[in-house]
User: Which sequence fits this backbone?
């Protein structure tokens, strides 16, 4: 019998992460979701992993039957890079517009970042982004996990001072603008969130 994962009620990207783990652990599986976006995202991820995905629907609940192999095959993006990947966070939210949505998106981003490969080499937090690294931040667990996996986390000391947060830092290393500039200039790729 295929392993069944109930991913109903999980916020994005939870259903995709649960499905990816199930595929890696068991191969064939059934993922149950409760909305069309989760259905589509899980199917797309399964196909990207070289699996087939067949969907059944019953009263607004979708059962996605994933079979390992038989799909188009996993395609790896080829990204030319001559140095490390650096991701910079100038805000404690993702994108511009609604702050509440931006907070939800940044939490989802960090959760997904811990699950994908390759991982970034360095994360840099400055301006309001430093708020993500201090006591009370909802992404601390994800940041600690990234540190454990080898990511270097640099946090702007001037910014921590400005917001009165230097004593509350919980993740990363208090850094300075010289280190931040040097890290960004030596990167093969810099991604701004």
Assistant:
């Amino acid at each position: 019998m295929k392993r069944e994962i109930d991913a109903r009620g999980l916020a994005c990207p939870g259903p995709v992460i649960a499905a990816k783990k199930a595929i890696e652990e068991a191969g064939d599986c059934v993922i149950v979701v409760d909305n069309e976006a989760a259905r589509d995202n899980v199917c797309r991820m399964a196909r990207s992993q070289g699996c087939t995905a067949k969907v059944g629907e019953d009263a607004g609940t979708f059962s996605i039957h994933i079979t390992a192999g038989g799909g188009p095959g996993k395609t790896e993006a080829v990204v030319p890079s001559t140095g490390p990947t650096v991701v910079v966070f100038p805000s404690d939210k993702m994108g511009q517009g609604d702050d509440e949505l931006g907070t939800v998106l940044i939490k989802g981003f960090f959760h997904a970042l811990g699950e994908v490969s390759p991982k970034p080499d360095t994360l840099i937090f400055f301006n309001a982004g430093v708020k993500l690294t201090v006591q009370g931040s909802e992404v601390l667990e994800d940041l600690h996990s990234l540190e454990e996996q080898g990511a270097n986390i640099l946090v702007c000391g001037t910014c921590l001072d400005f917001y009165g947060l230097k004593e509350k830092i919980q993740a990363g290393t208090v850094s300075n603008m010289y280190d931040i500039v040097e890290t960004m200039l030596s990167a093969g790729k810099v991604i701004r969130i």
Remarks:
- The first helix runs from residue 14 to 26.
- The radius of gyration is 19 Å.
- The domain at 85-192 is CATH 3.40.1260.10 (Hypothetical Protein Ychn; Chain: A,).
